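Pilot study result, target chain (192 residues):
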Amino acid sequence: MLTMTVNWTKLAKIRELEEYFKEDFDGFKKLIGEKIEEFGHFSDEALDKFAKLRVLEVTNGCTQWAFRRGDKECLSVEQTRECMNLVMGFIKQAELYFPSEGKIEFDDEQKAFIEAGRNLYINAFKKHNKDSEREYYAASTAQFIVYGKKRMQLAFNIVKQDYEMLFSPYYIERGQKYIMPYLECLESKENE
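Predicted structure:
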């Protein structure tokens, strides 16, 4: 069981969230709260699987953005494409594969959750819908809050163990650095 308090002031200072909190602090906070409730009904087992997928998504996102910007540390075209194909395949098939754990499957409700997240991402960033972008960041923030520090760290450990050769140590670390500010806004007591 996880009991937590969110430091909303600290959360509002995260670069990706600043504009939404500035526009309507209470409204954006309420939207995140609604998403927390929505995600909070999943079992611990489901949340463990979702956390692994979210770590893969964020790590892949870091590699893709670096490639598009032409960062000096970016992976080769082939490696960047391989990262994208791996993660997009997991999302589209709604199943994960980790060499050390084998195949990880999702039930129908969990698959619907993954598909809804994918559609929200497409509306926000491919179709450039501002309302969808706001909702996407609220949902993403809620996921980090619900998954919590311990679960996210365990997810990073397995991604690092099984996929570091693909993403590289640099982008595994970049993914962790992206997520860390969200987790640092949690003042929690996790019963272990």
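One observation from the pilot: Residues 2-185 form one domain. A full batch analysis is planned for the follow-on phase.
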